[in-house]
Task: inverse folding
């Protein structure tokens, strides 16, 4: 998918919502556990109920790897289901990978070619030659961890070197990498003030924003400081939507939660136009 | 496996060699491709030929994920084969994972419980709460990326903040995390001088050292500066051993390469006792 196609989808749906498909078998409705592939059935129901409200789905690979080969089959079925039924949706493999060059190429192929995700999240610690292999894929996107939404973000990401926090150095440095036009960045919503600084460095890039809702970030605040002329934001919500209910009405309740966020987003978009 | 058991194995075998099982189907002997599971058959032959010369095997998960569900099955069979036939071997899942707390727990379970590796490599960028979930597993080990052996290591890992390079801050900070006694560190051999500094911070920890051989690091130099009273080093070699030949003699040639390194290690161990 091109960035332009993502932007068009946002404009058409009046939404920049990304739904995190982090399926934990201990949290999903009990009646699904009797089915052959509860993870896929859960995802399918969530997707059927929400695809018109969101522009992106983001399965976190940890939740699938935790169930071994069966989990990987569920992931494969989930991405295939999205690609076949909702090809307009921007898909994100939240894998946070990163390794030396030829090894990163292996990961990139696995997620961007074989599983056919539109994008993958990547950790920056190993630098340029660990990220560039991901950037080489045309019309695919690499979402680099910049400032994450967890407590530990302050352990290293905000360390100041040469007058600059590490996350800013990561973003600035990444702009010089080959095919850097394929980069997006993870920026946690829990630190809305940082968006002002980040937009000075990457005014045009898309930012994937976790931490709205369950982790306490404010949608209004993030949009005020982080939005650009193409919106430029993908706001992720996982637990707040997919675990809104664990009864047989789970998909309907997920839709209601997604709809609340989507309507809030539509209002924000209206107010800036 | 306890650290003490690893140390005993090193003393008994007079080796601190780790063999990287990074299986690329385009590089293995052609005749294996006719078998049902070429990756496992390749690994099995390498393990059979080298298990008395090394103390550790390290499959890099990227090489298995690249082959989808079949690849994951090969990884499962490989770790099971090692655990069943050579339980004394210290196994490393080179996965370089790291995510927010509950998600890291998912990864930790996948590698340390379900696949039953002795250890897993983890990226530090997301800080304390992304690593501690891995440290919670008893007699399991978390190998934190500190200073990697690739070119990109100099992009961020050596940035100086408060008078200290990032990789040193990572190592120092990690010492305060819960169950930090379960930590080891990745330190590339290509920068032997750095070992002196690192040993001031973690005199007793084990260091996993890639980059000897193919990537140009010197074994002698690393041992001189990085060894401690328990040896404290696991020297990894992947391509130099497993791809020594791509003919039908590949396992024998791999043994010969492993033996060269093992004999060099035995000499070094003799010289310090």
Result:
């Amino acid at each position: 998918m091109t960035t332009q196609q993502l932007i068009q989808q946002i404009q058409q749906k009046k939404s920049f919502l990304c739904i995190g498909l982090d399926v934990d078998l201990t949290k999903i409705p009990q009646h699904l556990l009797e089915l052959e592939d509860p993870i896929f059935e859960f995802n399918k129901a969530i997707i059927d109920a929400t695809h018109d409200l969101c522009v992106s789905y983001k399965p976190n690979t940890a939740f699938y790897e935790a169930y071994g080969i069966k989990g990987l089959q569920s992931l494969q079925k989930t991405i295939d289901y999205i690609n076949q039924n909702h090809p307009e949706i921007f898909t994100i493999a939240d894998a946070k990978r990163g390794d030396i060059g030829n090894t990163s190429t292996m990961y990139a192929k696995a997620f961007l070619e074989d599983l056919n995700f539109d994008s993958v999240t990547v950790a920056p610690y190993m630098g340029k030659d660990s990220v560039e292999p991901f950037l080489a894929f045309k019309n695919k996107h690499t979402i680099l961890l910049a400032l994450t939404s967890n407590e530990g973000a302050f352990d290293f990401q905000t360390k100041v070197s040469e007058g600059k926090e590490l996350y800013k150095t990561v973003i600035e440095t990444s702009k010089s990498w080959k095919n850097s036009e394929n980069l997006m960045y993870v920026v946690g919503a829990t630190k809305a003030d940082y968006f002002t600084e980040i937009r000075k460095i990457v005014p045009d890039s898309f930012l994937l924003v976790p931490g709205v809702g369950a982790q306490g970030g404010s949608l209004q605040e993030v949009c005020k400081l982080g939005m650009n002329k193409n919106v430029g934001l993908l706001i992720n919500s996982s637990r707040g939507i997919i675990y809104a209910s664990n009864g047989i009405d789970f998909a309907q309740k997920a839709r209601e939660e997604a709809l609340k966020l989507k309507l809030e987003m539509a209002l924000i978009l209206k107010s800036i136009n």
